[in-house]
Amino acid sequence: xxxxxxxxxxxxxxxxxxxxxxxxxxxxxxxxxxxxxxxxxxxxxxxxxxxxxxxxxxxxxxxxxxxxxxxxxxxxxxxxxxxxxxxxxxxxxxxxxxxxxxxxxxxxxxxxxxxxxxxxxxxxxxxxxxxxxxxxxxxxxxxxxxxxxxxxxxxxxxxxxxxxxxxxxxxxxxxxxxxxxxxxxxxxxxxxxxxxxxxxxxxxxxxxxxxxxxxxxxxxxxxxxxxxxxxxxxxxxxxxxxxxxxxxxxxxxxxxxxxxxxxxxxxxxxxxxxxxxxxxxxxxxxxxxxxxxxxxxxxxxxxxxxxxxxxxxxxxxxxx
Length: 320
Ligand code: 2P0
Fold this sequence. Notes:
36% helix, Alpha-Beta Plaits, binds ligand 2P0, single chain, Ribosomal Protein S5, domain 2, 4-stranded antiparallel beta sheet
């Protein structure tokens, strides 16, 4: 059978950086995210193909990606037949735009449907997490929390919806500083931070409190409270990256220019707050009514600026 799933990336408002179990991909910290409309991954899975193949944006995937995809497919159905995967992103991959979050959530949903397996959304979220941690949050639209979980097998560490896609008229204005592949991947970067940053323990200790503040701010639709905790989480995570040995520096000159532009917007009375992930791009959280002014300010520093509204969860259809 064949099935196609469409998923959106999510951007963390309170960040995940660090694992307590690398084999099961269990996080050391809880996190909170917003799923974004306007960017998407479309993945078609053919169950029972002549052999395992993964085609990513029209090109045969490299060995590492193929191995990761096969490992997740093995979890969907341990005695599976060969499977064909065709996946396309309509935005730059591997540039800190959370392409792995939409990628692995689309993959598990399409694969389960093509295999004829009916799994709960939480089970699908756990499988997506095994592919890439942040993917477990993209099963749902709107605001989503990824809980730490307590079980050793990780079956209770998955996404939990906090507020639906139409909860709040906020947007993320995304300034694309660079669409190039990042020099240090998230998986190895966060492992290096755990092993070498003197700030890692403090990061892990304080993260649950930031998620509590973020969740309350989302539910109360309090932009200032959410923006402040999002910026705190962002800059603490980048401090962790910068104090890793060797330092992990994702920032480019235009990144810093955008960060200053956001501060100036706030000085002018516009509620705009910046976040960044494992890449040089800057994403700015603001009300939809301020999106055009924010985009204008960012366009002074980068050419490509996009406005993304909250997006929905994964959708899937069985192909005839
Ligand atoms: C996040 N990031 O919370 C954080 C913020 C990047 C910075 O989740 O190793 O691709 O596959 O679990 O999920 C990116 O890391 O890492 C990420 P793995 P993932 O969105």
